[in-house]
Amino acid sequence: MNIEALLAQGPVTGTHIALVAAAAAFFAVMTFWRTLLDRTPVYRRINALSERREALRQGLLASQRRGAATSRGVGIARQIVEKFRLKRGETAELAAKKLVRAGFRSSDSVVIYLSLKLCLPLAFGMLAAIAFYSLDVLALSKQMKPAAAILSVLAGFYLPDILVRNMADKRREKLIKALPDMLDLMVICTEAGSSLDATLFRVSREIRHASPEMAEEVELTGIELGFLPDRRQAFDNFCARTGIKHIDALVSTLVQTEKYGTPMAQSLRVLARELRDERLMEAESKAARLPATLMIPMVIFILPTLFVVLIGPGALNIVDGFAKL
After folding, report:
1. pTM higher than 0.70 for the full model?
2. CB contact set of 86 (below 8 Å; sequence gap of 6+)
3. Which terminal CB of the chain, N or C, has fewer other CB atoms within 10 Å?
4. How is the chain split into domains, by residue range?
């Protein structure tokens, strides 16, 4: 239908003009919007980096706001550590390694840990002296009160180590449990043609809900691969942060792949299969040890009652027979 046919049908009203104007405005807006779209991967990556930078900035500001409330306590702990020079030597390095494996990476965590190692024995000792000598809580004898006070001091000294070790063990178990799934995702990404850096970021994003600990470690490794001058150092840091032998095997595979150009997907698939087989063998070994483990409670709790039920009536009859004689 052309313009002459429209004019032959009748005069053009304001409704027609409004509809034409609305359609023209709609197409103009759509054209302008399409020009703003990212048509190339470069623009998408630039926008993604900008969003990531903004998210990091917001997180930094939030952490600064949260840290303002506890800055006084951390400042006191830092003064104590600097006064007694606790952050020098191998002790501080070992403490930092323990805290990293437990999930604490900030420098303030090392300061708080060392200050607790110094202050908790004194605090526990003072509380024990007040409780056992002044208040006489447990009504201990004179010989037991010094021993109880010494045990309280030792408990305060070893309490931070026990807590950090328990947290590190729990985190290590979570990492081991999430490792096969992470390897499978890496196989899928590498077979799809992604590079190692892109694979790590993709895997960290996909596994974040299932295992936040593994996602954090993988993402941090990908970031270090991007800005460290030696890529081997990023892999070594990954091993040091986790302390898992399976991660060492994974790192050796990745280093060999980057050095010699071997196919990474096949190596990762073999590694994931070996890890699952090892977990299955460990479960079978635990099941095989179960009868020997149950032997002691059976001997202590079940066999005496069984002997009483079986031998008890006969023993009573023998006693009654001797009584009648």
Report:
1. no
2. 80, 92, 114, 115, 117, 118
3. C
4. 173-283
Measured CA to CA in angstroms, residue 302 lies from 169, 288, 294 at distances of: 35, 21, 11
Cβ burial 27-42 (10 Å sphere, 16+ → b, else e): eeeeeeeeeeeeeeee
Distance CA 26, CA 9 (A): 26
Token representation of residue 8: 């032959």
In 3D, which of 225, 229, 227 has the Cα closest to residue 238? Answer: 225
pLDDT tens over the chain, length 325 residues: 445 555 455 555 656 676 777 777 777 767 655 655 545 544 555 565 566 556 655 554 454 444 444 566 677 777 777 777 777 777 888 888 899 899 888 878 888 898 888 889 999 989 988 888 888 777 788 888 888 889 999 999 999 999 999 999 999 999 988 998 899 899 999 888 888 888 998 998 899 888 888 988 998 888 888 888 888 899 999 998 888 888 888 888 888 888 887 788 888 888 888 888 888 888 898 888 888 888 888 888 888 888 888 888 888 888 888 887 7
Q: Check residue 13 and report its DSSP letter.
A: -
Spatial contact of 172 and 244, defined as CB atoms under 8 Å apart? yes
CA distance 191 to 189: 5
The owner of tokens 């509809």 is 19
The span from the CA of 204 to the CA of 221, in Å, is 10
